[in-house]
Amino acid sequence: MIKNIDSVLKEIASLFIAEKKEIYLVGGAVRDMLRGKKIHDWDLTTNALPEEVTAIIKKAKGKVVPTGIKHGTVTVFYKNQSAEITTFRTEGDYTDGRRPDQIHFTSSVEEDLSRRDFTMNAIALRLPDGALVDPFNGENDIKAKIIRCVGNAGERFSEDGLRPLRAVRFASCLGFEIEKQTLDAIPLSLSISEKVSWERVRDEFDKILASPVPSAGFRLMEKTGLLKLFLEELSICRGVEQKGFHEFDVLDHSLLACDFAAEKNYSHEVRLASLFHDIGKPSSRKKDENGIYTFHRHEEISAELSRKILNRFHYPNAVIDSVCHLVKEHMFHYTEDWTDAAVRRFIARIKEENLEEMYRLRRCDTYGFSGKETNPHTLMLLAKRTDKMLESGRAFTLKDLAVSGNDLTEEGIPPGKIMGMILKELLETVLDDPEQNTREKLLEIARRIYKERK
Ligand code: ATP
Ligand code: MG
To answer: Atom 6, ligand 1: which residue's CA is nearest?
Structure first.
């Protein structure tokens, strides 16, 4: 029996009880309540049909959106809260390992629970009294921190190939262990997992990345074959030894870097970049004449491979661009003898809005050398100089130049490739010597270049 049930949730429940319908809280919310954690969304299940749910909520002046009507789900908005309400259902046959061919409504909550993936997710909390319906002993598994399939793991995975990845994701997010039979069934279901859409895979992958120690999830993916299936570029980093400062192979280094990003609560982009920043190493590794490994221009290959992966996962272009930029530029080597012009060129290349994220990526990368946090002394010196330089209001982008493309057109330089090249050279000039950033001086230089190149 669970107490402390939210009062709005109880009110919603009373609307159903008044109509002689059953209603339960299910899924992650119940699991998280039993773990003593805050719950973030409400999934409800009822024997009322979707049109009955709609009528009940509308009668009480709530709003209803038919968000998943094919699966019997509507989203309701009531007193500033929202909940997904799904009619008790079972699933028909799965012929493609992705989605049930059809669903059937049922009048039994136990039957609804039996279609769910793991015992910890197959507990219903009856509203409004909080009594638990727990036919698969999920509460015990939660106490023991165990992820176990409802029923036969191999069969459940062959119905939906996403479930193995969900098991790994939950292990990483909750710090739970996957029970042996469930774990053993994962490698045997890879041909089913292969059919799952990349969008669904990405949702789970994102949750692993957002988990407290993402390497826990990625190591489980590696152990079960899921890493090779979905992220082969990363899996081949295993055993790619590197010498010098590095204690670890490329995969362990990348996982440590990513764990540091999670520990520091860095952005999703930095987490992605820390995981992928060295994936170009396996294909760029060479031994020099002293028998030392080199990875010449690996950052460019890493950026290309990152773009390929992120496109495959259908990330938004803005995310892809910022991650690839971070990866491509991660190999800067600051020393105190950098001239001011070198600092300005660094800002121009990285761009002001990415500097902070770039420094964070560097901190992750450095952590990945040894698995120990070090004092980011050199990085702080660079940050101090870039801060000071930015405050000085100098020009770092084409927009900051004292002349625009229009000014050049007025000088008779036609828009197009040559103008682009001239503007770039003007920026280079100003980065070298900010005193040159006046209209007269830049126009003079522009005219000269145009004459030479025309
Ligand atoms: P989270 O905290 O990440 O939201 P959750 O357990 O609520 O975790 P959801 O993906 O929101 O996960 O799904 C809600 C519930 O629906 C699950 O708890 C589970 O009972 C069921 N479920 C979701 N996906 C599947 C699936 N692929 N196969 C079987 N049951 C599933
Ligand atoms: Mg949920």
So the answer is: 28
Enter the tokens of residue 451: 């004459």
Nearest to 431 by CA among 348, 334, 351: 348
**141, 161, 70, 150: which is closest to 110 by C-alpha?**
150
Calculate the dihedral angle through the C-alpha atoms of 326, 328, 330, 334, rounding to the nearest 10 degrees.
Answer: -120
For position 91, what pLDDT does the model report? Answer: 81
| Beta carbon of 162 within 6 Å of any ligand 1 atom | yes
What is the distance between the alpha carbons of residues 405 and 419, in angstroms, rounded to a whole number?
7
Indicate whether residue 27 lines ligand 1 (CB < 6 A). yes
Look at residue 245 in the predicted model and tell me its pLDDT: 65
Residue nearest to atom 13 of ligand 1 (CA): 27
Report yes or no: 78 and 12 within 8 Å, Cβ to Cβ: yes
Q: What is the pLDDT of residues 104-144, one digit of tens each?
A: 999 999 999 999 999 999 999 999 999 999 999 999 999 99
Alpha-carbon span 275 to 289, nearest angstrom: 30
Report d(CA 362, CA 257) in Å as an integer.
9
Hey, what long-range contacts does 397-403 have (CB within 8 A, 24 or more apart)? 397/348, 397/351, 397/427, 398/423, 398/424, 398/427, 400/430, 400/437, 401/426, 401/427, 401/430, 401/437, 401/442, 402/437, 402/438, 402/439, 402/441, 402/442, 403/439, 403/442, 403/443, 403/446
Ligand 1 neighbourhood includes 116 CB (under 6 angstroms): yes
Ligand 1 atom closest to residue 31's alpha carbon, by position in its atom list: 6
Q: How far is CA 133 from CA 45, 101, 138, 161, in A?
A: 12, 27, 10, 27
* Span 248-290, pLDDT tens digits: 999 999 999 999 999 999 999 999 999 999 999 988 888 888 8
pLDDT value for 244? 67
Total Cβ atoms within 10 A of residue 127: 21
Q: Is 145 left (phi over 0), alpha (psi -120 to 50) or beta?
A: left
Whether this model's pTM surpasses 0.90:
yes
Which numbered atom of ligand 1 lies nearest the CA of 122? 20
**Nearest alpha-carbon partner for 39 in 85, 83, 86, 89:** 83
Exposure string for 46-79, b = 16+ CB within 10 A, e = fewer: bbbebeebbebbeeeebebeeeeeeebbbebebe
